[in-house]
Amino acid sequence: MIEKPAMTEKNIIIKIKRQDKPASSAYWQTFEVPHRPFANIISCLMEIQKSPTTGNGETVSPVTWDSNCLEEVCGSCTMLINGQVRQACTALVDNLTTPITLEPMSKFPVVRDLQVDRERMFKNLKKVKAWIDIDGSHDIGEGPIMQDQDRAKRYIMSECMTCGCCLEACPQFTMDNSFLGAATFNQVRLFNLHPTGEMKKEERLDAVMGEGGITDCGNAQVCVEVCPKNIPLTESIADIGRQTTWQAIKNLFTK
Amino acid sequence: MMNRKKKIVIIGGGLAGLALAMKFCERNGEVTVVSYQSLKRSHSVCAQGGINAAIDAKNEGDTPEKHFYDTIKGGDFLAHQPLVRDMCYQAPAIIHLMDRMGVAFNRTGEGHLDFRRFGGTLYNRTAFAGATTGQQLVYALDEQVRRHVHDGSAKTLEWHEYLGAVLDSEGICRGAVIHDLRTDEIYTLQADAVVLATGGPGQVYARSTNSVVNTGAAATTAYLQGAKYANGEFIQIHPTAIPGQDKLRLMSESARGEGGRIWVPRNASDQRDPKKIPESERYYFLEEKYPLFKNLVPRDVASREIYDIVYNKNLGVSGDPMVYLDLTHKSREFLDNRLGGIMDIYTKFTGVDPRETPMKIFPAVHYSMGGLWTDYGPDSDGLIDHGSPRNQMTSIQGLFAAGEADYQYHGANRLGANSLLSCIYTGLMMARGIMNYTDSLEKSVDDIPSTVFDDTRSHWKNKFDDIKKMNGSENPYKLHHELGDIMLANVLIVRDNKSLEKASHEIQDIETRFKDVKCLDTHDWANPSPSFINQLYCMIHLSKIITKGALMRDEFRGSHYKPEFDMNQPKDFDPHEYIDYLEQKQYGEVSMEKFPADHLDYMKRFEANNEKWLKTTVAQYKDNQPEITYEEVNTSLVTPRPRKYD
């Protein structure tokens, strides 16, 4: 990005699917922004804010979107870019075919324009108790000893930023069902792998064994392809599948 | 005595806010966390390299006392010492707590926590989870808070923004004005205490390493309501970031902690591929000038040196304002395991793999050492009385601040990997004091007439109605960019009074033009425009605090560098001479034979300068301007002395 840019005059054409309110209907608008080397989708949206005029010369309200860190660690700016679900901050314009289309994710309710409501993902974290049940935050000494290899395995899973890419791509995950989806299964595996987390393993497994649980996964394997953090989601799904099988057998004898 | 749970409203869902929320819930309090966005997405996730604690896992003889000294020295002695000492003594317990919560900290062969080096210290003191430590710490605290939400003791108000404090007739904070960013509704929350854990103000510079939400608006609103704002001029410029248009992305100090080397070609016109330039033709300027700390000098020092190389010596790579940060001598596996997060960021945003090619970096605005003035209650051991209601309280009674939003822990320059620590420390530490504060109140919030809340709500409602009616010719986003340009051009690494005067005038112009802003969007649903205009108003005032503080402080301390007032420490000077000098002074006039003449002269100037400027800057809102006064710094534990890192 740091090579000396040759200034170009060409404009980038961006078509954006807009929607004023959750219940109102969507419409498309086209914008032109000046091409700048190494521009990303967020910097283009910022340009539109500075000059919210469509290609037809009509002044409109600036497009709204969610973003925060702009370096792909917060998970905020997920959207469909040329039909592909991804983070807008790492979508460099020079790597995209033009005209560029931007749409909100389709598996979550639209709030406005490119903003969607991903509350379902956070609710699922509660459902599977995606946390370690510590006794309290007072000083009671060191944490458990752990092999770095196990730690590294957990670390990759723990990079999940609840961005929703895996769920947008998943054919099983729809607005009207209760499928938990890859991100949530991955969290179950993450916490079951921790020496303290493991103590609540059964509760987490029980939570993914009912309707919308692990057996509803259709094994399309697209989740892992779209994950911006390269989390081995299909491994997590397979592993939780095994864990729940054992849990089901165990439940037969104990419950 | 109240017959109900104590209730607090915490603004901000980063490390400080979440740590406090967890602790307050454990103490059986009732917590509401207010956040612009979903909790997991706060700016704390951007912290990369690690968190400091003197656990001495490598048997180097590290201690919390040494951590304390490094932090105080790194901050050029401007931080209140008992607080910093207490934080450093609490640090090991904080790391162990975070580890118990499941943070995937890198481990040693035996399975214990691993530590690496960071700037401003010679010890391996930094615990880390790859190169996304901040993200991992936020997630762990977020999970604990989610657990409390699940249990019903905590509540979250996401997609809500804090507009101001509700102050009663005595000026005591009794609640918060909240703006629902979706429904546009403005209402008040009653609380026994309100805590601003709202992060830093990087957006005042428009382009920085900070996230979009870091406007500093909440802290500035407190200032506009009468709270003191302290040390505003101390803005940390991080030495290593990727230049960019929308953001200057951080390349963690841990890159150097793990062996990364900074260099430029010795010959300015050398256009060769960096890998083809032989060692002898590379200028490792930090290593040559600072043989003891090398590439790990504190950030203020490193940023000044890079600036000097680029702008005074004209040695920037290919004539551009950039230097190399080189990790190519390290193995791919090592880099992926310990720095994977930042390796990916660099690759994704530049298309260049830093494992193969040296990175090109330049300093960027990163952190505010200054923030809302807050208080503390020291104990007799030179530490902090954790039960003191004064802890972290702003000058508005009942309004507290924590994390980057306060000013107390980093003096004139923050050491790397101390920010995560100060955020978690303040959040955990202040919980008991707030409990005690609510006990000490003569009148509870329940006894405050509802008109106080109604009037405050109406005030803000009218203000936002007025904003929506703004129909001038200025685009607020463009104006923000221009404000950032002024700050970047004049209030950055090297400062001089002429440029600062110029910046003050230019900010004045921005303030005038602000009146002619157009509210681009008047929808009543999920409309960010009115909020942004209000935030821009705050950023203009915050830029005035920073600029005026910088203009008035005629010295060179930490991140605040005015070459005109550089006391030019003699090359062979040893800071211990100064301690000796002070001791000898107690017995009368120090004789000229004791020290080399230039050393003695330097020490006398240093002492006189400290007499005048070793003070906290305090800004208070008066007649639409910051009125600046100075307060004593608590230096009761370590004698301030000249800094030296070579």
Distinctive features:
heterodimer, A: 255 residues, alpha+beta, Ubiquitin-like (UB roll), Fumarate Reductase Iron-sulfur Protein, Chain B, domain 2, 5-stranded mixed sheet, two-stranded antiparallel ribbon, 8 helices, 31% helix, B: 646 residues, FAD/NAD(P)-binding domain, Flavocytochrome C3, Chain A, domain 1, Methane Monooxygenase Hydroxylase, Chain G, domain 1, 4 domains, 6-stranded antiparallel sheet, 5-stranded parallel sheet, 16 helices, globular
What does this structure look like?
The complex is a heterodimer of chains A (255) and B (646). By secondary structure, chain A is α+β, with helices and mostly antiparallel strands. Chain A folds into 2 domains: 11-116, Beta-grasp domain (Ubiquitin-like (UB roll), Roll); 119-135 and 143-254, Fumarate Reductase Iron-sulfur Protein, Chain B, domain 2 (Orthogonal Bundle), CATH 1.10.1060. In chain A, 31% of the residues lie in helices and 13% in strands. Chain A has 8 helices and 7 strands, in the order ββαβββββααααααα. Chain A has helices spanning 41-50, 119-127, 148-158, 165-169, 182-192, 201-207, 223-226, 233-254; strands spanning 11-18, 27-34, 78-81, 84-87, 100-103, 110-112, 115-116. In chain A, the strands form 2 sheets. Chain A has a 5-stranded mixed sheet with strand order 2-1-5-3-4. Chain A has a two-stranded antiparallel sheet with strand order 6-7. In chain A, α3 packs antiparallel against α5 and α5 crosses α8 (233-254). The longest helix of chain A has 22 residues, at 233-254. The N and C termini of chain A lie far apart (60 Å). The relative contact order of chain A is 0.12. With 646 residues, chain B is α+β, with helices and mostly antiparallel strands. Chain B folds into 4 domains: 7-234 and 369-450, FAD/NAD(P)-binding domain, CATH 3.50.50; 238-366, Alpha-Beta Complex (Flavocytochrome C3, Chain A, domain 1); 470-552, Fumarate reductase/succinate dehydrogenase flavoprotein-like, C-terminal domain (Methane Monooxygenase Hydroxylase, Chain G, domain 1, Up-down Bundle), CATH 1.20.58.100; 567-632, no CATH class. Chain B has helices at 15-26, 64-74, 81-100, 133-151, 217-224, 254-257, 285-289, 299-312, 332-350, 419-440, 450-469, 476-490, 497-514, 529-552, 575-585, 597-613, and strands at 7-11, 30-35, 51-52, 115-117, 124-127, 154-158, 160-167, 173-180, 186-190, 193-196, 229-230, 235-242, 249-250, 261-265, 282-283, 323-326, 359-368, 371-372, 399-401, 615-622, 625-632. Chain B has a 6-stranded antiparallel sheet with strand order 13-12-17-16-14-15. A 5-stranded parallel sheet of chain B has the order 6-2-1-10-19. In chain B, a hairpin with a 6-residue loop joins β12 (235-242) and β13 (249-250). Chain B starts with 6 loop residues before the first strand and ends in a 14-residue tail after the last strand. At the A-B interface, α1, α2 and α3 of A face α1, α3, α4, β13 and α9 of B.
